[in-house]
Amino acid sequence: KAGVTQTPRYLIKTRGQQVTLSCSPISGHRSVSWYQQTPGQGLQFLFEYFSETQRNKGNFPGRFSGRQFSNSRSEMNVSTLELGDSALYLCASSRTQNTEAFFGQGTRLTVV
Amino acid sequence: GQSLEQPSEVTAVEGAIVQINCTYQTSGFYGLSWYQQHDGGAPTFLSYNALDGLEETGRFSSFLSRSDSYGYLLLQELQMKDSASYFCAVSYNTDKLIFGTGTRLQVFP
Q: Mapping DSSP to helix (H, G, I), strand (E, B) and coil, where does residue A8 land?
Protein backbone atom coordinates (compact mmCIF):
# COMPACT_ATOMS: atom_id res chain seq x y z
CA LYS A 1 0.00 0.00 0.00
CA ALA A 2 1.63 3.26 -1.11
CA GLY A 3 2.08 5.96 1.48
CA VAL A 4 1.43 9.67 1.23
CA THR A 5 3.44 11.17 -1.61
CA GLN A 6 4.44 14.81 -1.73
CA THR A 7 6.11 16.50 -4.66
CA PRO A 8 8.49 18.13 -5.05
CA ARG A 9 10.72 17.22 -2.09
CA TYR A 10 12.77 20.40 -2.32
CA LEU A 11 12.06 23.76 -3.86
CA ILE A 12 13.89 27.08 -4.03
CA LYS A 13 11.93 30.16 -5.00
CA THR A 14 12.56 33.88 -4.92
CA ARG A 15 10.49 36.44 -3.08
CA GLY A 16 7.35 37.45 -4.93
CA GLN A 17 7.01 34.21 -6.84
CA GLN A 18 4.24 31.71 -6.33
CA VAL A 19 4.50 27.98 -5.70
CA THR A 20 2.26 24.93 -5.94
CA LEU A 21 2.85 21.84 -3.84
CA SER A 22 1.21 18.49 -4.47
CA CYS A 23 0.05 15.70 -2.18
CA SER A 24 -1.28 12.27 -3.11
CA PRO A 25 -2.97 10.63 -0.11
CA ILE A 26 -3.17 6.96 0.73
CA SER A 27 -5.76 5.22 -1.40
CA GLY A 28 -9.14 5.35 0.31
CA HIS A 29 -8.28 8.34 2.49
CA ARG A 30 -10.58 11.26 1.84
CA SER A 31 -9.24 13.71 4.42
CA VAL A 32 -6.09 15.66 3.54
CA SER A 33 -4.54 18.24 5.85
CA TRP A 34 -1.62 20.58 5.30
CA TYR A 35 0.82 21.82 7.92
CA GLN A 36 3.73 24.25 7.97
CA GLN A 37 6.66 23.24 10.14
CA THR A 38 9.36 25.65 11.21
CA PRO A 39 11.95 25.25 13.97
CA GLY A 40 10.43 26.01 17.34
CA GLN A 41 6.90 26.41 15.98
CA GLY A 42 5.83 22.84 15.71
CA LEU A 43 3.27 21.95 13.07
CA GLN A 44 1.05 24.89 12.23
CA PHE A 45 -2.30 23.87 10.75
CA LEU A 46 -2.98 25.35 7.32
CA PHE A 47 -6.17 23.71 6.09
CA GLU A 48 -8.05 20.45 5.80
CA TYR A 49 -10.00 19.06 2.87
CA PHE A 50 -12.54 16.28 2.74
CA SER A 51 -14.27 15.18 -0.45
CA GLU A 52 -13.10 18.29 -2.32
CA THR A 53 -14.41 20.66 0.35
CA GLN A 54 -12.28 22.79 2.64
CA ARG A 55 -13.68 22.08 6.09
CA ASN A 56 -11.11 23.88 8.22
CA LYS A 57 -8.61 26.66 7.80
CA GLY A 58 -5.81 27.80 10.08
CA ASN A 59 -4.62 31.31 10.82
CA PHE A 60 -2.64 31.95 7.68
CA PRO A 61 -2.98 34.85 5.24
CA GLY A 62 -4.98 34.54 2.07
CA ARG A 63 -1.76 34.02 0.11
CA PHE A 64 -2.04 30.40 1.24
CA SER A 65 -4.71 28.45 -0.57
CA GLY A 66 -5.46 24.90 -1.49
CA ARG A 67 -7.80 22.54 -3.22
CA GLN A 68 -8.66 18.88 -3.41
CA PHE A 69 -9.55 16.93 -6.51
CA SER A 70 -12.11 14.18 -6.98
CA ASN A 71 -9.38 11.54 -6.61
CA SER A 72 -8.51 13.07 -3.19
CA ARG A 73 -5.18 14.44 -4.41
CA SER A 74 -4.57 17.87 -3.01
CA GLU A 75 -2.53 20.91 -3.92
CA MET A 76 -1.59 23.95 -1.92
CA ASN A 77 -0.53 27.23 -3.42
CA VAL A 78 1.39 30.10 -1.90
CA SER A 79 1.42 33.36 -3.83
CA THR A 80 3.70 36.37 -3.44
CA LEU A 81 6.26 34.37 -1.49
CA GLU A 82 7.99 35.96 1.48
CA LEU A 83 11.23 34.94 3.18
CA GLY A 84 9.23 33.82 6.21
CA ASP A 85 7.44 31.22 4.12
CA SER A 86 10.58 29.11 4.11
CA ALA A 87 9.54 25.94 5.90
CA LEU A 88 8.78 22.26 5.62
CA TYR A 89 5.26 21.78 4.30
CA LEU A 90 3.71 18.52 5.39
CA CYS A 91 0.63 16.81 4.07
CA ALA A 92 -1.27 14.22 6.08
CA SER A 93 -4.08 11.92 5.02
CA SER A 94 -6.58 9.96 7.05
CA ARG A 95 -9.85 8.14 6.56
CA THR A 96 -11.54 10.77 8.68
CA GLN A 97 -9.97 13.57 10.67
CA ASN A 98 -10.38 11.76 13.96
CA THR A 99 -8.33 8.73 13.03
CA GLU A 100 -4.62 8.17 12.61
CA ALA A 101 -3.01 10.67 10.26
CA PHE A 102 -0.31 9.47 7.88
CA PHE A 103 2.25 12.06 6.84
CA GLY A 104 4.23 12.47 3.67
CA GLN A 105 7.95 13.29 3.73
CA GLY A 106 7.15 16.93 3.12
CA THR A 107 8.27 19.61 0.70
CA ARG A 108 11.10 21.79 1.95
CA LEU A 109 10.55 25.25 0.53
CA THR A 110 13.32 27.82 0.65
CA VAL A 111 12.52 31.39 -0.32
CA VAL A 112 15.51 33.55 -1.19
CA GLY B 1 -8.42 29.28 20.91
CA GLN B 2 -7.17 25.74 20.43
CA SER B 3 -3.63 25.75 21.81
CA LEU B 4 -1.66 22.92 23.36
CA GLU B 5 1.23 23.12 25.79
CA GLN B 6 4.06 20.64 26.15
CA PRO B 7 7.65 21.00 27.39
CA SER B 8 10.16 22.02 24.77
CA GLU B 9 12.88 19.58 25.74
CA VAL B 10 13.44 16.52 27.93
CA THR B 11 16.66 14.59 28.51
CA ALA B 12 17.13 11.10 29.95
CA VAL B 13 19.54 8.18 29.92
CA GLU B 14 19.14 4.79 28.30
CA GLY B 15 16.92 2.45 30.27
CA ALA B 16 15.16 5.26 32.10
CA ILE B 17 11.48 6.25 32.04
CA VAL B 18 10.35 9.64 30.80
CA GLN B 19 6.94 11.32 30.83
CA ILE B 20 5.96 14.06 28.39
CA ASN B 21 2.95 16.09 29.47
CA CYS B 22 0.43 17.89 27.32
CA THR B 23 -2.32 20.27 28.33
CA TYR B 24 -4.98 21.51 25.94
CA GLN B 25 -8.02 23.71 25.69
CA THR B 26 -11.26 21.80 25.94
CA SER B 27 -13.61 23.56 23.57
CA GLY B 28 -14.68 20.97 21.00
CA PHE B 29 -12.21 18.35 22.25
CA TYR B 30 -12.59 14.93 20.67
CA GLY B 31 -9.36 13.01 21.32
CA LEU B 32 -5.62 13.23 22.02
CA SER B 33 -2.94 11.71 19.80
CA TRP B 34 0.83 11.42 20.03
CA TYR B 35 3.26 11.49 17.13
CA GLN B 36 7.00 10.87 16.90
CA GLN B 37 9.26 12.67 14.46
CA HIS B 38 12.95 11.90 13.95
CA ASP B 39 15.18 14.60 12.49
CA GLY B 40 14.61 14.79 8.76
CA GLY B 41 11.66 12.42 8.91
CA ALA B 42 7.90 12.66 8.82
CA PRO B 43 5.75 12.50 11.95
CA THR B 44 4.49 8.99 12.67
CA PHE B 45 1.49 8.04 14.77
CA LEU B 46 2.08 6.54 18.22
CA SER B 47 -1.21 6.48 20.07
CA TYR B 48 -4.72 7.89 20.41
CA ASN B 49 -6.90 8.42 23.50
CA ALA B 50 -10.52 9.45 23.32
CA LEU B 51 -11.53 8.17 26.76
CA ASP B 52 -9.95 8.68 30.17
CA GLY B 53 -7.30 6.18 31.13
CA LEU B 54 -4.08 4.57 30.05
CA GLU B 55 -3.40 2.99 26.66
CA GLU B 56 -0.33 0.77 26.49
CA THR B 57 1.55 -0.15 23.32
CA GLY B 58 4.81 -1.91 24.08
CA ARG B 59 7.28 0.43 25.74
CA PHE B 60 5.03 3.43 25.11
CA SER B 61 1.88 4.33 27.03
CA SER B 62 -0.46 7.29 26.72
CA PHE B 63 -2.81 8.69 29.33
CA LEU B 64 -5.76 11.05 29.15
CA SER B 65 -7.76 12.89 31.77
CA ARG B 66 -10.57 14.80 30.10
CA SER B 67 -11.63 16.46 33.35
CA ASP B 68 -8.12 17.93 33.74
CA SER B 69 -7.61 18.67 30.02
CA TYR B 70 -4.36 16.82 30.36
CA GLY B 71 -2.55 13.86 28.90
CA TYR B 72 0.90 12.37 28.85
CA LEU B 73 3.10 10.04 26.88
CA LEU B 74 5.17 7.62 28.95
CA LEU B 75 8.26 6.07 27.42
CA GLN B 76 9.84 3.16 29.29
CA GLU B 77 13.16 1.36 28.89
CA LEU B 78 14.47 4.24 26.82
CA GLN B 79 16.70 3.46 23.89
CA MET B 80 18.97 5.74 21.88
CA LYS B 81 16.63 5.41 18.92
CA ASP B 82 13.88 7.07 20.96
CA SER B 83 15.72 10.38 20.58
CA ALA B 84 13.24 12.38 18.53
CA SER B 85 10.58 15.07 18.80
CA TYR B 86 7.22 14.07 20.25
CA PHE B 87 4.05 15.97 19.44
CA CYS B 88 0.71 15.81 21.14
CA ALA B 89 -2.22 16.56 18.87
CA VAL B 90 -5.85 17.25 19.65
CA SER B 91 -8.71 16.24 17.41
CA TYR B 92 -11.60 18.63 17.59
CA ASN B 93 -15.21 17.92 16.71
CA THR B 94 -14.82 20.24 13.74
CA ASP B 95 -12.53 17.62 12.21
CA LYS B 96 -9.46 19.73 12.82
CA LEU B 97 -6.23 18.14 14.13
CA ILE B 98 -4.06 20.64 15.99
CA PHE B 99 -0.50 19.88 17.05
CA GLY B 100 1.56 21.14 19.96
CA THR B 101 4.97 22.71 19.43
CA GLY B 102 6.71 19.41 20.21
CA THR B 103 9.02 18.06 22.88
CA ARG B 104 12.55 17.20 21.88
CA LEU B 105 13.72 14.08 23.71
CA GLN B 106 17.43 13.40 23.94
CA VAL B 107 18.49 10.01 25.23
CA PHE B 108 22.07 9.69 26.46
CA PRO B 109 24.07 6.48 26.90
A: coil
